[in-house]
Amino acid sequence: MNFQSKKSLLQIRLSKTVALCLFVCASSLWVQAQEITSPNKNLSLKFELKEGGIPSYQLSYKQKPVIKPSSLGLELQNMPSFMDGFTIKNTAQSSVDDTWNPVLGEEKTIRNNYNELVVTLAQAKNNNRYIRIRFRVFNDGLGFRYEFPKQNDLNYFVIKEERSEFNLAGNHKIFWIPGDYDTNEYAYTTSKLSEVPSLMKKATIDINSQWPIKELSVQTPSMMKSDDGLYINIHEAGLINYPAMYLELDAVNYKMRSHLAPDAVGAKGYIQTDAQSPWRTIVVSDKATDILASKLILNLNEPTSYKDVSWIKPVKYIGIWWEYFVAGKSTWAFGKENNVKLTDDFSKLTPNGKHGATTERAKEYIDFAAKNGFDAILIEGWNIGWEDWINNWKEEVFDYVTAYPDFDVKAVHEYAASKGVKIIMHHETSGSATNYERRLDRAFQFMNDNGYDAVKTGYVGKIIPRGEHHDGQWMVNHYINVAKRAADYKIMIDSHEAVRPTGLNRTFPNWIAQESARGTEFESMGGLAPDHTTILPFTRLMGGPMDYTPGIFQTDLSYYGTGSTQRVNTTLVKQLAYYVTMYSPLQMAADIPGNYERFPDAFQFIKDVAVDWDNSYILEAEPGDYVSIARKAKGKDAWFVGGITDENARTANITFDYLPAGKKFIATIYADAKDANWNVKPQNYTVTKVVVTSKTILKQYLAPGGGVAISIKEGNATELKGLKKL
User: Fold this and answer.
1) CA 425-598-577 angle, 5° bins
2) Is 521 tagged catalytic?
3) Which one, of 676, 694, 674, 686, lies nearest residue 710 by Cα?
4) Longest C-alpha distance within the chain, in Å?
5) HSE of 82, CA atoms in CB hemisphere, 13 A
6) From 521, 597, 622, 647, the catalytic residue
7) CB within 8 A of 56, min separation 6: which ones?
8) Which of 5, 161, 297, 514 is a plausible cystine mate for 1, CB 3.0–4.6 Å?
């Protein structure tokens, strides 16, 4: 072989070697993986680019798969997608371990401890346009989000759909409600993932203002349990300037993927960089109690920027409310007419004789609140417009400053102030957010002028702007705007029928509570299953406090003689337990005052129970079956315990090891009687005082649909004398 031939052969071999090297190097980009674990090493996250430059992640807990390899990305309108064609531009890892103090909460101090991985992904085919995916792995789960840095080739874009996948490891048990753009107020169904399609039609009951999603989907927070004992909760955190997320379900392959609420023209979100998505959250443990104890969602939200939070206070209240649902004698409306305008002279309406929010009635409630130590009363139906407020898609529906002829705002304010009682304003919008925003500043100034420092907002009905949804980007921003504007007036917000919460009570601490689920009012409209409130802590309450409106003592509604055969499907004692198990810094004693006067010993627990806490202890829990929680009152040596069960009787295991050692305490135990049942003798209960210590263990019977409530305080020698030690 001559020199030239040898040179040619060498060049061929070199070319093949370089080509092979390039192929190997290029291929390594697709399989390049990044891994991080939780601080306690139980959770492990793996991120990689699959073939085609598709982002993918997987999550395991104690080496058990939680999320199998799942793709990430977004489809865009009229632009190349963020789905594939990526290379890894950069990665960075860091760790955080600090604490912070919520303004109001279940814990005085919250630990924020995670390991973080940030992956910067570039698309060479799109002028190296890039995004970031940020992962945070906590001991109790994972949060991840998309970030869109400002850059020459990425300024504005419209989301067609987010395609975050959650490929599950099996046919899990799931506690679910149907995906719906306009309501969270469905009853929960418990089934296997594979059974959801056959149950969806039955689960999608008729609700005022609903828009069930065409694709098979469920709402978040989505609570699941695997056959091998893992508890998995999928939700989101920090929902700002973005539509709410639902989970489309492939019930054959046990795969979920994100589905966003659209706007009036079908778009899923309008983004201007710098921007980011909400966090997608996966809370996981082999203990159900860890799910309820998780603060992952709160930790993923931004700290508040409010300089002064001294005006944000916990509230225990009563209200002119339940009588509208059950008593048959009261209405929100003043007149008999059914076609009114805000410009009408409401003094010329024909009184229906049943208007609830009168000056006289308000004073009766104020007297009851003052006598029993309540902070405030809610008065619904005080303002004009209730005659035709619902189902008319009406824009100019309420003005929020004009009272009915039989309600004297000034007189009620002065009377309440003389008794040391606050008034909670009520702003029902009937879904007309445009009307509310136009009148917002006048409404809040009216509140300041008349001594109101909290308002219950409502969004019953189809949304205006017409075509928008309760959970779309426009309305998400509306709710936040209301909370932020209210803060300018030092007003606290309790929103009903709003998008489900995502931990924003950390960022906007005056947004102290929401309804956003099927609450007590539905006990008068078909009822709630006895297991409903054993599911809510694992679903709705994962996102934030709920204004559930507990405390119904008269559970058989035929009592009122209106012909109703409806009943509240709990025992009286279970209603007491809700004040501990259903967390909220805003708690209502929802029944009519006269019913509390019939059961003064049980009512004492509602009067005593705290609504803001130093510490919370999840004693035992199983979604759909039972929950037992103990809490220490904020700044006080007082503890309260609540335990609830589903339709089955059970024995609760109540421990007291959170009490200071070496001391004796008086525990007042409110318990179901042996013959009590949610539908037979629900008002039968016992009240017993005993001595307990940190070593005490109580085995307490809970009736079907029942519960237990305990108040605990340190006792002196005189108080302890004669009491039995448990």
Assistant:
1) 65
2) yes
3) 686
4) 115
5) 24
6) 521
7) 47, 48, 49, 50, 69, 70, 71, 72
8) 5
Cis, peptide link before residue 221, omega less than 30° from 0: yes
DSSP assignment letter at 634: T
Entry pTM:
0.94
235 touches 297 (CB < 8 A)? yes
- H/E stretch holding 21 reads helix 3-31
Contacts of 503 (CB under 8 A, 6+ apart): 237, 238, 297, 298, 300, 301, 543, 544
- Whether residue 243 is preceded by a cis peptide bond, meaning omega within 30 degrees of 0, is no
Residue type, 279: W
Yes or no: say if 121 and 85 are a contact pair by the CB < 8 Å rule.
Answer: no
**SS3 label, residue 57:** strand
Buried/exposed code over 618-639 (b: 16+ C-beta within 10 A; e: otherwise): bbbbbbbbbbbbbbbbbeeebb
CA separation for the pair 120, 128 (Å, rounded): 11
How far apart, in whole angstroms, are the C-alpha atoms of residue 549 and residue 317? 10
Rounded distance between C-alpha atoms, residue 651 and residue 699, angstroms? 6
- Asked if residue 179 lies in contact with residue 213, where contact means CB atoms within 8 angstroms, the answer is yes
Q: Dihedral of the CA atoms 650, 656, 657, 661 (nearest 10)?
A: -160
**CA–CA separation, 605 and 220 (whole Å):** 33
- The model's pLDDT over 329-377, given as tens digits with 9 standing for 90+, comes to 899 999 999 999 999 999 999 999 999 999 999 999 999 999 999 999 9
Residue 86 tokens read as: 């990526």
Query: Residue 362 and residue 335: Cα distance in Å, rounded?
Result: 19
* Contacts made by residues 345-353, CB under 8 angstroms, sequence distance 24+: 346/384, 346/402, 346/404, 346/405, 347/405, 349/387, 351/406
Q: What is the DSSP letter of 155?
A: S
Closest alpha carbon to 135 in 11, 300, 311, 326: 300
Q: How does pLDDT run across 46-101, given as a tens digit for each residue? A: 999 999 999 999 999 999 999 999 999 999 999 999 999 999 999 999 999 999 99
- Cis peptide leading into 388, omega within 30 of 0? no
Bridge partners of residue 112, in order along the sequence: 98
Please tell me the distance from the alpha carbon of residue 641 to that of residue 536, in angstroms, as a whole number: 18
How far from the centroid of its chain's Cα atoms is residue 230's Cα? 22
Give the tokens for residue 92. 């960075």
From CA 388, how far away is CA 349, in angstroms rounded? 13
